[in-house]
Design brief:
heterodimer, A: alpha+beta, eight-stranded mixed beta sheet, 8 strands, 19% strand, B: mainly alpha
Chain lengths: 414, 193
């Protein structure tokens, strides 16, 4: 049953946000051509500039208002979804930073455990929006909507991470990822130090790819029964597209791209037409940890080995609140890191190429005796610069390609 | 490009293909050997547990003397048989029989109330179960490696390359026949009066 929410209030907020966003967009659409048209004198140029500025503000404000409304709806509906549940706790990380920091470094959810899990790329900091934590049939868990950022502030992962503390430790590290086809799998594991585990079940092999640091330990964890359970988990609505890792006494799960916000276009529809669907989706999300524990039978110690020592202590990850900056997404990372490398390559090619051309001219036609050493010095400097800049650019491009979407390659073996 | 050039390219490609196949067969054979040694390690762990179980059981199970003797004999035979490529089949058969007999022994212990509450024996049983899980995992690793090797050898021209390289197909490590048959109620509870 969906907990009661003030639908009329939510509808008023939706209308308000929808109107404000539409007005901002309209202002942008109207002010831009006006600003471009007005001009000719100093005062008219000033007026035109003001219109262009207003258009820019409108252009930025319109999607921002929609995003803020989505955040408002998510907060309200998540709070409503966990209301009356003693087994689960909702932490609004945007407003309860201290609590979220302590939860994400607790037994239930250790963000540091994801660092060497092979599920996400290496990261330095994280920004969290909401956390669900509690106990599912006696298994402590944490579920967080999160963005992981690298040292430069680029987003390495955006989605939902879940962590379950298991009754007993599993040996080694076993990673279950999605199957990406022959070429995708080859790219996924190229340069990785973990081994691929081939398992007996063709259906399972069609859905997942398994990697691990020990062939036998991986199979101790992934018994034939566990393969069936993982296939069953793939059928869960919210779990579709999951990847997971068994590491010590933790099961770590990643849902890449999952967001708890309602779709942006819902702002154009009255809430009574879709609120029930959204509330049901969130209610199923709140039940997801119990479903995972039940489906994978995590309460049982079967298939486990005697307690093994932790691989190493989980690192603490600095935490930020709210959504990461707009310019942190993958396309901006491509522009920021790849663009600069391309500039190096272009610069090196142009100056190095010119120097080589001049060198060729010097050999075939000869330089004048007065400028001989000067020109050959310039040619040498140009060639050295060209080789250095091109090499630097190619190195940066290769590094970007190596690290791009490559959690297995960047995984440090314990 | 003349016909001799084309023939040269075809020849180089054929040699490169044969070499790649040869390298893949050798790599797979080495993987099988790695898996085999992993199986051997876990089987030896199991052998180390048997004397303890037999000793504990012998205190109470005088009537099962022949079963205990069988277990001890099979353990010794299995220990004498090396887990090498040539003897793998024989070793696996012995291990299968040994596993079956120890399983019978553990099953019959259920009939002895004094044994059911014996703490050292309960711990030994627990360790046995965990070791069996490890052996099952090692066996799956071995069988996966053998499957890949046998595929590479048996698909043409794998036979020719494998024969030239001295690589032979390996036997699978299968569960003992008794483990594949469903247990009957009579066997567990005894025949109806």
């Amino acid at each position: 049953m969906t907990p009661a929410v003030d639908t009329a209030f939510l509808e008023r907020r939706r209308r308000l946000a929808c109107r404000a966003s539409a007005i901002a967009l309209l202002a942008a659409l109207l002010c831009w051509p006006i600003g471009m048209a007005v001009g000719g004198s100093e005062s008219r140029d000033t007026i035109g500039g003001a219109f262009l500025m207003a258009a820019l503000v409108g252009l930025i404000a319109s999607p921002w208002i929609v995003r803020a409304w989505q955040g408002f709806m998510r907060r309200r509906m998540l709070t409503a979804a966990v209301a009356g549940r003693s087994d689960i706790r909702h932490i609004d990380a945007e407003h309860q930073q201290a609590e979220s920091q302590s939860v994400l470094a607790s037994g239930a959810f250790s963000l540091g455990a994801f660092l060497d899990s092979g599920l996400v790329e290496a990261f330095q900091t994280a920004t969290v929006t909401h956390i669900l934590t509690g106990e599912a049939r006696g298994v402590p868990f944490g579920l967080a909507e999160i963005a992981l950022l690298d040292a430069k502030g680029y987003r390495m992962f955006g989605g939902v991470l879940a962590s379950f503390q298991l009754a007993r430790s599993r040996p080694g590290l076993t990673i279950v990822m999605r199957d990406r086809g022959i070429l995708g799998n080859l790219l996924e594991r190229a340069g990785s130090t973990v081994e691929r585990l081939t398992l007996e079940d063709p259906t399972f092999e069609g859905i997942f790819e398994v990697y691990g640091d020990d062939q036998v330990a991986g199979r101790v964890t992934l018994t034939t029964t566990m393969l069936e359970r993982l296939k069953a988990m793939d059928e869960l609505g919210h779990a579709k597209g999951f990847a997971c890792a068994f590491r010590g006494d933790r099961l770590l799960v990643a849902f890449r791209g999952m967001a708890w916000r309602c779709p942006a276009w819902r702002i154009a529809q009255p809430v009574d037409r879709w609120l029930q669907v959204y509330a049901a989706w969130l209610a199923a999300l709140v039940d997801l940890p119990v479903d995972i524990v039940q489906t994978l039978n995590l309460t049982s110690a079967a298939g486990a080995t005697p307690d093994t020592p932790q691989l190493h202590a989980d690192a603490t990850v600095p935490l930020g609140a709210g959504t990461p900056e707009v310019f942190s997404s993958a396309p901006w990372r491509l522009v920021g890191e790849g663009g600069m490398a391309l500039v190096y390559v272009a610069s090196g090619s142009i100056f190095g190429g010119l120097a080589l051309f001049a060198g060729h001219y010097g050999i075939t036609a000869g330089f004048s005796p007065q400028l001989f050493w000067y020109l050959w010095g310039m040619v040498a400097a140009g060639v050295v610069y060209g080789a250095y800049a091109t090499g630097l650019g190619v190195r940066d491009l290769a590094r970007l390609a190596y690290r791009w979407n490559a959690p297995l390659r960047t995984l440090k073996r314990p | 490009m003349g016909s001799s050039g084309i023939l040269l390219i075809i020849g180089v490609a054929a040699v490169a293909g044969v070499y790649a196949w040869y390298a893949s067969i050798v790599a797979r054979r080495n993987k099988v050997q790695e898996a085999l040694s992993s199986v051997d390690v876990h089987l030896n762990q199991r052998h180390d547990l048997i004397p303890n179980i037999v000793q504990l059981a012998a205190r109470f199970m005088e009537h099962e003397r022949s079963l205990l003797t069988d277990v001890t004999r099979l353990r010794e035979e299995a220990r004498q048989t090396p887990a090498t490529a040539g003897d793998a089949g024989k070793r696996f058969a012995l291990e299968g029989e040994l596993s079956q007999r120890v399983g019978q022994l553990l099953g019959r212990m259920e009939a002895y109330p004094a044994l059911k509450s014996d703490r050292p024996l309960l711990e030994a049983q627990q360790t046995w179960t965990e070791t069996e899980a490890q052996i099952t995992a090692a066996r799956r690793f071995y069988n996966a490696a053998v499957n890949q090797l046998n595929n590479a050898i048996q698909i043409f021209p794998g036979q020719l390359i494998a024969a030239a390289a001295g690589v032979k197909s390996m036997p699978m490590f299968e569960a003992p026949a008794a483990a594949r048959t469903a247990p009957s109620v009579d066997a567990i509870l005894g025949p109806k009066p």
